[in-house]
Specification:
10 strands; about 15% strand; 10 helices; eight-stranded parallel β-barrel; alpha/beta
């Protein structure tokens, strides 16, 4: 690499000995790979869209139909959710095995690839029968046994950055997957904890500086999730467009048929109409930097 001192908390020794598989070998070293025929790391910027929680079959069917029509490459939907607190209710819940089953139905009917989260090694086999990309959530970023077992499936894996993690920690997590021979790894920025945010409801700030920072030292594609980072619907559009301008290799958005009544995190999802409009705006920004949606 040309840069001798690539990061505040990363040394040359780290690049050689701690995460050599995640580190760039030369200036223009960037990984490219396809998932269901859709390339990551190239000119195209794939969009993953859908609800935080797969609430029922009708809802996820409507969502899959709508986001695909608007141009999304992947349907995102959570069946297993690491909810902050252990309490569940009729409003605040997980659908677990049933949710995975619903994803399998709409995947076949609508013909759209799926990304969903795995929380536990015991769920790997049945979730991997459906998902095309395994999502490792921020809270499991350093769950190394989970990372290792998911890596062994050879499914593409997206690792969300923990909201308190350094770039060094994040690349260390990616190294666990790469170490198992699984080269289809992508990173996802979803907001970091800071002393102050801009709304009482906002828990995180979107760290867009990390996109070019990663690209200086790693070859892995970088996805951005403006929905979870902002935790506020009116800001999602602006941060999505800024994410593309910053060099993001993919976008993950929370889209819901009735955003205000979403079972999980109702402050952040956008509507079908807003998503369709945003897709058109994303195309313009992507075109301006020589990329496409």
């Amino acid at each position: 690499m040309d840069n001798k001192f690539p990061g505040k908390d990363i040394s040359d020794s780290d690049l050689k000995d701690k995460f050599p598989l995640a580190a760039k070998k030369f200036t223009n070293h960037y990984s490219k790979f396809k998932v269901c025929g859709i390339e990551f790391g190239g000119k195209k910027i794939p969009v993953m869209a859908g609800p935080n929680m797969v609430e029922n079959l009708s809802m996820i069917r409507k969502t899959a139909t709508s986001v695909k029509k608007s141009g999304a490459s992947f349907l995102r939907g959570g069946a297993y959710k690491p909810l902050t607190f252990p309490y569940r209710s009729k409003k605040y819940f997980e659908t677990r095995e049933e949710g995975v089953h619903w994803l399998s139905i709409v995947k076949k009917e609508i013909k759209i690839p799926v990304i969903t989260e795995i929380l536990d090694v015991r769920d790997i086999d049945h979730v991997c029968k459906v998902t095309d990309i395994i999502q490792i959530g921020s809270r499991n970023m350093q769950n190394y046994p989970l990372l290792t077992e998911c890596a062994k499936t050879m499914k593409p894996i997206m690792i969300k950055r923990h909201y308190g993690a350094s770039l060094r920690d994040w690349l260390g997590a990616a190294e666990y997957v790469l170490f198992e021979g699984n080269k289809k790894v992508m990173l996802c920025e979803r907001g970091v904890s800071v002393t102050h945010t801009h709304r009482s409801t906002s828990r995180f700030l979107l760290d867009l500086q990390v996109v070019p920072a990663i690209k200086e030292i790693s070859h892995l594609p970088v996805i951005v999730d403006p929905s979870h980072a902002t935790f506020w619907r009116p800001w999602v559009k602006d941060m999505t467009l800024a994410s593309i301008a910053s060099g993001a290799d993919g976008i993950m958005l929370e889209v819901h048929p009735d955003p205000e009544n979403s079972a999980v995190d109702p402050l952040q999802p956008i509507s079908f109409r807003s998503f369709s409009k945003l897709m058109n705006q994303m195309k313009k920004v992507a075109k301006s930097i020589g990329r496409k949606i």
